[in-house]
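Reopening this ticket.

The earlier resolution said the output was attached, but the attachment link was broken on my side. Pasting everything inline this time so it's all in one place.
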Amino acid sequence: MQRYFLESAHRDGDQVTLSAVIYHHWITVLRAEVGATAEFVDTTAHLFHGQLTQVTGDEARVRLTAVPTPRVELPVHAVIACGLPKQEKAEWITQKATELGVDQIIFFGGDWSVAKWQGNKVDKKLKRLTKIAHGAAEQSHRLRRPVVSYASNLKTVLQEPVDVRLMAYEESAKQGEQSALNRQLQALTPGQKVLTIFGPEGGISPAEVALAQAAQTTLVGLGPRILRTETAPLYLLSAMSMVLELQQPR
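Inline output:
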């Protein structure tokens, strides 16, 4: 069943006029007719079935029926901070990380980032990435849409209020470190906010490592292989799901 996000909180029985974006996709593209049903998620992450009750040339309305809300979100709030990657890798990271349960994505200008986001283009890039995140959240039937933002440097990222800070560090993997990530994930408790930092293609500079460690960030390896900048966040989110969801009683 198709899923859409609403922009306000709702209750069982509410009548809702669909936004132009939902109208275009469901009515114009998918050709939904009166009587059709789709899933809708409100801003409080509650799930509804919405039956199409009225369609005109430029407006459509649905009647919402509350249904049990499944447990599909990670039990912790996962934040990934990625050094600016080259080309379209930011879009890839945004889409796939959303499917894997991320809550927040921060792209930052790393010391060794080759890519640069010019100030007058940041808003346009974030708008594009936010659209990708929202589409991926609908496709993967999530209850929350990730927030995508930009930070000019790692220092700004480290000001983000979180409970746990991790940094995926290539040298940790090279040195055979294997247990720090597992220990950190096993120690997490539901509701905590976890920030994990990933470098760009050029890696993380020694100055950034020192800055992160000064902010009580734990350096972790992501297995014995060296991962690409767009692969590392997906490894982390998958490992988080394995430890916190698949190995825990539901």
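Reporter confirms the inline version is readable. DSSP finds eight helices and eleven strands in the chain. The CA atoms of residues 12 and 152 lie 43 Å apart.
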